[in-house]
Design a protein that fits this description.
With 396 residues, this protein is of the alpha/beta class. It has 13 helices and 15 strands.
C-alpha cells in the first residue's frame, strides 16, 4: 500500500493547489491539505496508457468510440450496481462545466437553486456566475456523533416557494456523508412531488470507506426521470487536469434538450488523452481504487486518533466517503478563517477554512487525506504544534 501512495513533490509543477499554497506562505517548506486532489502518483496502468498514446505521436480530432461508452456502463454496473444504457451517457470535460450548462438550459435568470450547506464552494460560484439565486438548505449536525443529515422539511419549504433545481453532493463534500439508499429515495420522491430537477454531483462516488455502500441517484430513474447524474474519474485517479467526465441522463426529452445545448456551443469533442486515461482506469484499476480507499481510511484513523489524543475537545465528523476530513476547531478560540491564516503564516501549512463552504458555525476546517503517510504525519505535527500555541495563549 505504501509503495502505491508515496509522497510526490508537486510544488512548481503548475499545480493550482501547491501554487496557491506557496503564494500564501511564501515558503518552499509549505505543506498543503486544501484543494481536493491527491499528492501521490495515479495508477501505473493510467500512466502507461498515456505514455503509449503519446508515443503514437498524433493528437488530432477525436471522438468517443463505442468502447468508451461500454467501459463507463460496465464501471457503473460493477462499482455502483447501476444498470444503464450507453445512450444515456454524455461525455463532458468537467463536472462544473456540465453543471453550468444544466443551469443555463433548465432554469431562468434570477430563479432559485438549492444547495445543501456546508457544501463544495464552487457550486455557489457556478450558480452566481449564471445569475441565479442561491437558496441554502443547511444540513443538520448531530452533536452527539458529529454526523450530518438532510433537513427534508426545510427543503420541502424551499420547493413550495418555487425552487426548481437542487444541486446535490453525493458523497458529500466536505462533511463526508455517503447518503443511504433510503435517504436518496426520499429525496427523489420529494423532488418528483414538486417537479424539481435533481442534479447529483457524484464525483467522489468511488471513494467509499469499507463499511459503507454508495447509492447513485441513477438507481431511481424509473421513479423520476428529471435526474441528471454527473460523475468523473478525476477525483478517484487524480486526473482532473485531463478534463474527463460524464453526464448520465435517462429521460429522453431531457437528454435531447441537453445534447442540443451542448451542440450549440460545440462541446462535443472529448480530450483524446482523457479518454485513454478513463478507459485504463475503468478497465484495469479496480484494485488501485480499493487500495486507495484502504489507504485513505488508514490516514483518517491516524488523524482522528492523533488529534483526539492531544485535544479531547476536538470534534471530527465520521468519514464515510471522500478523502476529506471535516474537523471542528471551535475549541481553539479562533474561527476557521483566522485559524487558517495563522496556520499558514506560522507553520507554513494550508487547509481549507469552513467559511468557504458556508459552514454556519465558521468553526470547521477541511483536511485533505489523499497524501502519503509521511506527509500526513508531518502535517499533524505542525497542526498540533500550532494548536498548542493557541492553548498556551489562552492560558497566558
Amino acid at each position: 500500500m505504501t509503495d502505491l501512495f508515496k509522497t510526490l513533490k508537486r510544488i512548481n509543477t503548475d499545480s493550482i493547489k501547491w501554487a496557491m499554497a506557496k503564494e500564501e506562505t511564501n515558503s518552499e517548506d509549505t505543506l498543503t491539505f486544501s484543494v481536493a486532489d491527491s499528492d501521490y502518483e495515479t495508477a501505473p496502468e493510467i500512466k502507461n496508457a498515456l505514455k503509449d498514446r503519446v508515443e503514437h505521436g498524433a493528437f488530432g480530432y477525436a471522438r468517443a468510440d463505442k468502447t468508451y461508452y461500454e467501459v463507463v456502463k460496465d464501471w457503473m454496473l460493477r462499482r455502483y450496481g447501476v444498470e444503464t444504457d450507453t445512450t444515456t451517457i454524455i461525455p463532458i470535460p468537467k463536472v462544473l462545466t456540465a453543471l453550468s450548462i444544466l443551469i443555463q438550459t433548465l432554469t431562468e435568470k434570477n430563479s432559485d437553486i438549492v444547495i445543501q450547506t456546508p457544501v463544495y464552494h464552487a457550486f455557489r460560484h457556478v450558480i452566481e456566475d449564471n445569475e441565479r439565486v442561491i437558496v441554502d438548505n443547511p444540513l443538520i449536525k448531530d452533536t452527539s456523533t458529529n454526523r450530518y443529515i438532510m433537513d427534508l422539511g426545510h427543503l420541502e419549504e424551499t420547493f413550495k416557494n418555487g425552487t426548481k433545481m437542487l444541486v446535490f453532493c453525493s458523497p458529500h463534500n466536505p462533511v463526508g456523508r455517503v447518503w443511504t439508499y433510503h435517504e436518496i429515495r426520499d429525496l427523489v420522491k420529494l423532488c418528483k412531488a414538486y417537479g424539481v430537477f435533481l442534479i447529483s454531483d457524484e464525483i467522489h462516488s468511488d471513494i467509499i470507506m469499507n463499511d459503507k455502500s454508495f447509492t447513485s441517484a441513477a438507481r431511481f430513474y424509473e421513479l423520476y426521470d428529471s435526474i441528471v447524474v454527473l460523475n468523473a474519474p478525476s477525483k478517484t485517479f487524480n486526473i482532473a487536469g485531463l478534463q474527463s467526465g460524464n453526464m448520465i441522463i435517462q429521460g429522453d426529452a431531457l437528454r435531447t434538450k441537453i445534447k442540443k445545448a451542448l451542440k450549440s456551443i460545440h462541446m462535443s469533442m472529448p480530450n483524446i488523452l482523457s479518454m485513454k486515461a478513463l478507459k485504463a482506469a475503468y478497465t484495469e484499476c479496480d484494485y488501485w481504487v480499493d487500495a486507495q480507499n484502504a489507504h485513505i481510511l488508514n490516514n483518517f484513523n491516524t488523524l482522528k486518533e492523533t488529534l483526539k489524543r492531544h485535544f479531547e475537545a476536538i470534534e471530527i465528523s465520521p468519514l464515510e466517503g471522500t478523502y476529506l476530513a471535516w474537523i471542528d476547531i471551535g475549541f481553539s478560540g479562533l474561527n476557521s478563517v483566522a485559524f487558517q491564516k495563522r496556520l499558514a503564516k506560522e507553520k507554513y501549512m494550508v487547509v481549507a477554512e469552513g467559511a468557504k463552504f458556508k459552514d454556519g458555525t465558521n468553526s470547521h476546517i477541511r483536511f485533505n487525506l489523499a497524501c502519503s503517510e509521511s506527509m500526513l504525519e508531518e502535517g499533524l505535527k505542525r497542526l498540533i504544534n500550532f494548536i498548542n500555541t493557541l492553548e498556551f495563549e489562552k492560558q497566558s
